[in-house]
UniProtKB/TrEMBL annotation, chains A, B:
GO CC annotations, alphabetized: cytoplasm
Top EC class, one word: hydrolase
Protein name: Ribonuclease 3
Species annotation: Formosimonas limnophila
Keyword Protein transport: no
């Protein structure tokens, strides 16, 4: 089991393993060998959640427990871990079975995210809490830099509604304007209308809720594009 | 803010605070003061989940990630934390507002459980990871002693089914035998029949699922009471 040398990965992590076998195990998918990364991932998920909780606790001394939970959920979700995995070029180091390789496992977001957690678990076992905390904080720096605790983890409908409330404008109105497709593959199309701003957008999705979220997301992009202007802009 | 001296509580925790204000904050409900335990609880929940994950990882080297998660959920749920709170006599030290006091807040399981987590958060801030890990491991010792990783966190229906599969007996049959009460206060009564063992029990609950779980639970108690005997025992 040689593959690409692990020294580059360790350099990117900013951490050198005493027991390199732990790092190797964190890179082995269950399709490749019986001893794989899943137990390390369980441990790493735990330490990641806690380290991020502590960072948020320190950073935002004035926000409440419920909001801290929302922001944490945003930071530990698959998207965030996948972005870290891609920076680390995890797919260069992964061990997958034949079937997984053929079906694109090297690029599968869930595998990439799981491996990042497993690496955190491996570092904890190799050197303890302070060492893994240092690695996590450093890898998460770009995500913290981009973080707006008032938005992170909020769905587009909630964000849009809060944004309109802040400028004392009535909530948007959502209506189904089309449904198509067979029973279990339906596509809903929904409109989102903000009357006071003469804004109208549309969104599609496999559920009514998803379609509404997409319409709300587009409405926000539109508002971003005309920040100072409260006057008429009509889509479609 | 004097109340009962905090030295007895610290003795029970096996930990002495450098900054006693942290322990005090962990004991203040939001109904009592603006600076209360909820942010510490957020932090404590995180460290608890991780410390328990690590204990389980070490203790059970042969069980899989999914099972580790189930057992952890069982150990960090409200029941478990409440049992620890009662051992620590948390209600002797709590600060609650008038309304909460009158409505029985001192004995409310959710408050007791939250305060235990908040205390873990406070210890972490006071002295770091190793200190809080030591306290958690020691408080959880009785729960670990009682722990059966094959059962912990499994609902009664699942436990009963696995138990019957192990002795190659067909799964139990559940039937609704009565529903009563108005629309939103219905009570379902369900029977659980294990034909091969001539066992029949009943269970009631506000949903069909709950009623089935109760019937399964009673069936297991019955099987425990007649462990060696596979012959007829008929309830009702």
């Amino acid at each position: 089991m040689t593959k690409v040398s692990l020294s580059r990965l360790q350099a990117k992590l900013g951490y050198s393993f005493t027991e390199l076998a732990l790092l190797r195990q964190a890179l082995i998918h269950r399709s490749y060998a019986a001893t794989h990364y899943e137990r390390l991932e369980f441990l790493g998920d735990g330490v990641l959640n806690f380290v991020i909780a502590h960072c948020l606790y320190q950073r935002f001394s004035d926000i409440k427990e419920g909001e801290l939970s929302r922001v944490r959920a945003h930071l530990v979700k698959q998207d965030a871990l996948e972005s870290i995995a891609r920076r680390l070029k995890i797919s260069d180091y992964l061990y997958l079975g034949e079937g997984e390789l053929r079906s694109g496992g090297l690029e599968r977001p869930s595998i990439l995210a799981d491996v990042v957690e497993a690496i955190f678990g491996a570092i904890f076992l190799d050197a303890g809490f302070d060492a893994v905390q240092k690695v996590i904080v450093s890898l998460y720096q770009p995500l913290f830099d981009d973080l707006d605790p008032n938005k992170a983890g909020k769905d587009p409908k909630t964000q849009l509604q809060e944004r309109l409330q802040a400028i004392k404008i009535a909530v948007p109105k959502y209506d189904i304007i089309d449904t198509s497709g067979a029973a279990h593959e339906q596509v809903f199309t929904v409109s989102c209308v903000i009357e006071a701003l003469a804004v109208r957008t549309e969104g599609a999705g496999s559920t009514r809720r998803l379609a509404e979220q997409n319409a709300a997301h587009t409405a926000m992009l539109l508002l971003d594009a005309q920040p100072a202007k409260k006057s008429a802009k009509q889509l479609k």
